[in-house]
Every structure is written in C-alpha cells, then in structure tokens.
Design goal:
alpha+beta; OB fold (Dihydrolipoamide Acetyltransferase, E2P); Chloramphenicol Acetyltransferase; 3 domains; 26% helix; globular
C-alpha cells in the first residue's frame, strides 16, 4: 500500500513552509531515521526524517517550492514488495480523497507522518496545544475537537464537517455526531441542515460588528503610479511577524512604563571584568574567554528583577495565570528579512560570561537560520535593544505568551541634578511594555524599579 508523506508541522504555529531540498531521489530506498529533505520555516531550516521504510516512488513537490501547506502531500513511498510505479499512481490518486476520508477515519496521526530535527541535530519534541481562534470562531483542541463557545465542552468534528457547518452558519457543537467516538462528520452536518435541527451560531456573535478590513492589494496599488514601484512577495518570516504583531496588538492591552538608568557604575564594572578575562587558545590564536556587552548585563538584570518580583514573571491564559519558576529571557536579534528572539534559559542562574558567550552563539546561528525551535519558542519575557542605532527610547510590542518586554535605548551623556548640583552622567532610557491583564501598574512599576536598581548597582549581579 502506498505511504503518503505530507508536509510536517515543525512548530505549533507553522502553517506552511518551503521545501528547500530533497536529499533523496525517486527509486532510492529509505529507512526510519534517514534524512530525506530540508524544509525552511519562517525562522530556521530543518531536516526531515522518514518514519517508514520503503522506496521513494514519487516526489510530488519539487525542490525549491515555496508556501507548501502543512499536511499537503509531498512524496509517496512504495512499501515492501510493492511496485514503485503502481505506488506512485495510487499515492497520487489517494491524495485528493484524503480530506473526505477523514470523515470515516478515527482520530489518529496521518499515514506517513515524519519526525523532524533541526540542522543542528536536536530533536524537536511534539508540542500539541489548543489553538486560540479569532473572535467568533470555535477553538480547536489538539486532537481536532471544537470547544463550544457556550458550554466549553469539546465537540469532535472532521475538517470537512467543520467547513460545511461554518459556510452554513451552523454551530457544529449542536450537532450529534455519528462517527467514531461521537465525531461529527459530513453526513451529520448535511442532515442537520436539511432537517432544520442545526442551531445557528449565537446571536450575540452574529450581531457583533465585523472588524475593519485592511485595504486590498488593488486598492493600495491604485494610489501609486504604474511602474513607480516593485512588488516583493512576503516570505514566511514576514508573514509570521505580521500575524503575531496583529495578534499581540489586538488581544493584549499594553501599557508602558519608562525610567532613566545611570550607566556609569555598570560601564566601569564592565571594563574591569573584560580586562580581567582569562585568555584561551583558538584557531586564531589566544583570545579573551569572554567579552561582556552592556546588553549581556541588561539580560542578567532583567532576569534577576523578575526573580525579585515573581508576581510579574507570568503569562496570561483565559483560565489561569502561569507563574514561571525561572526567568527565560528572549533577546530580539535582527536577521535578513525580519527578526527572531532566541532565548537565554534560566538567565537568573547564569554568570555574565556564560550569558555573553551563549548570546553570541545564539545570535550567530540565528543569522544563519540554524536555531532549533526550542531555542526561540517560549520564554517568559524579552529584551529589545536599539541603543546601538542611536535610538533614545521606544515602546516594544509584547511577544505572546510573554507579559512583558523591555525596550532599551542608547546610553548617552546627559545633565542630571545631584545634591542640588548639575552633573554629567551616562543615562539610558528603558521602557517596559506590560500586559495589563497579567501585570497591574503598581506591579510593573515594582519590576522596572528592581531592574533600574540592578543596573545602577551592578555589583549585585555578581553575588
């Protein structure tokens, strides 16, 4: 029987990817664990391993194809003692029927599902989770069930049944399922619609005014003279950044707190620590074992501030507050075409030299798009530093599921008043963006005050 191989979901948020390279060709034999392809996501390039043994009968999607949807058929394997040519025909014919067959099949992983690992060799653990839907649409559970908006009970339905119900304006949770384990299938929805037994979506939802839509592509282009512009298609990274920013600004009630921090003591300590760095031998000769940056010390200070104010080290969910045991600090890194936020895990426990060397490695691999998903997904807060570009201050957008993000401006000499006298000091402005659902104003003020105290008394980060 042909084994259909589909585009794997390499992260919980992945919807499509680019099939960068095939590492096998038609006729090759593969075994479980063999790397057969490289897939580019919005953040990294990942290797894909075969799960089943067989012969590559057909490569459905050519190398270099962009925007391949998750679960789309990409290749067909012929099983043991099966003719490859016949398997190629059978796999190709079966592909269009896959969605309809989901109405009849019990809930189970797709045939030919592949395991994945990054090009760095780390396995990517499966991370099933519920998907938060846009307003007015049902929530989807990890196993494919819809969560009723009214009762909160889970209703299992096939994708085809869900789509038909949605198009008809029917609440699928009101339909009794005849499929395995009570799953709602196509026939159930059609019977409910024709018999009038289906319940319409809640009136309150239907009556809600639709959200304003952005201008269409044609409407935008009409504003400019033909030939005066170039169209550059969005890649997966830019699409993901856009989607997450819209999600963040439309669902998180941001508020902002700004303080000025004096840096002179921190700069003096940094110079002393760098001067005291031992030397190590490398291919390029002897080099310092570490070289601390101001940003390294900011990461450490933010982590220690969250430990000092644990009620601010949280993430919001609709059912509970997630209070974190450690401070995992994401750091925004600019890469071609966008940005990524690699995470320094348990930063409060790490020395400044460890944070510095780890951050250099993460930033290098981020620019090469070789980070593992677990190295940039999650975290409990983030730091975005534009000081090196001369930016004085700015407000950053919170990256869900974080409840805070610290925007760091440039350190510059300013006139300050001390004991009634005007002095010159190196001052850095920082702005804390906060999710007001999780962190109230006074708590946010406590957190940023703890951060400023550590920056202005940096020896506390060494003990």
């Amino acid at each position: 029987m042909p084994i259909n191989i589909t585009m794997p979901a390499l992260s919980p948020t992945m919807e499509e990817g680019n099939l960068a390279k095939w590492l096998v060709k038609e006729g090759d034999k593969v075994a479980p664990g063999d790397v057969i392809a490289e897939i580019e996501t919005d953040k990294a390039t990942m290797e894909v391993e075969a799960v089943d043994e067989g012969t590559v009968a057909k490569l459905v999607v050519p190398a270099g194809t962009e925007g391949v949807k998750v679960n789309a058929l990409i290749a067909v394997l012929a099983g043991e003692d099966e003719d490859a040519a016949e398997a190629a025909k059978g796999g190709g014919d079966a592909a269009p029927k896959a969605e309809a067959e989901q109405d009849k099949a019990p809930i189970s992983p797709p045939v030919g599902e592949m395991s994945t690992k990054s090009t760095e060799g780390g396995a990517v653990p499966p991370t099933p989770q519920s998907v938060a839907p846009p307003s007015g649409l049902p929530a989807i559970s990890p196993t494919g069930g819809e969560i009723s908006q009214s009762s909160g009970e889970r209703t299992f339905a096939s994708p085809l049944a869900r789509r038909i119900a949605k198009d008809a304006g029917v609440d699928v949770s009101a339909i009794a399922g005849s499929g395995p384990h009570g799953r709602v299938v196509k026939a159930d929805v059609e019977a409910a619609i024709s018999g009038g037994g289906a319940k319409a979506a809640p009136a309150g939802k239907a009556a809600t005014a639709p959200a304003p839509k952005p201008m269409s592509d044609d409407a935008v282009l009409k504003l400019f003279e033909p030939g005066s512009y170039e169209l550059i298609p969005h890649d997966n990274m830019r699409k993901t950044i856009a989607r997450r920013l819209v999600e963040a600004k439309s669902t998180i009630p941001h508020f902002y707190l700004t303080v000025d921090c004096e840096l002179d003591a921190l700069l003096a300590l940094r110079s002393q620590l760098n001067a005291a760095s031992p030397m190590k031998k490398t291919d390029k000769g002897e080099v310092p074992a570490y070289k601390l940056s101001v940003n390294d010390m900011i990461i450490k200070a933010m982590a220690m501030a969250l430990v000092a104010v644990p009620d601010a080290n949280v993430s919001w969910t609709e059912s509970a507050m997630v209070k974190h045991a450690h401070a995992d600090v994401g750091v925004a890194v600019s890469i071609p075409g966008g940005l990524i936020t690699p995470i320094v895990r348990k930063a409060e426990q790490k020395s400044l030299s460890t944070i510095s060397n780890e951050m250099k490695d993460l930033a290098r691999r981020a620019r090469e798009r070789k980070l593992k998903p677990e190295e940039y997904q999650g975290g409990t807060t983030a730091v975005s530093n534009l000081g090196m570009f001369g930016v004085k201050d700015f407000s950053a957008v919170i990256n869900p599921p974080h409840a805070t993000i610290l925007a760091v401006g440039a350190g510059e000499q300013r006139a300050v008043v001390k004991s009634g006298e005007i002095k010159i000091a190196t001052v850095m402005s920082v702005t804390l963006s906060t999710d007001h659902r999780a962190v109230d104003g006074a708590l946010g003020a406590e957190l940023i005050a703890a951060f400023r105290k550590l920056i202005e008394n940096p020896m506390a980060m060494l003990v």
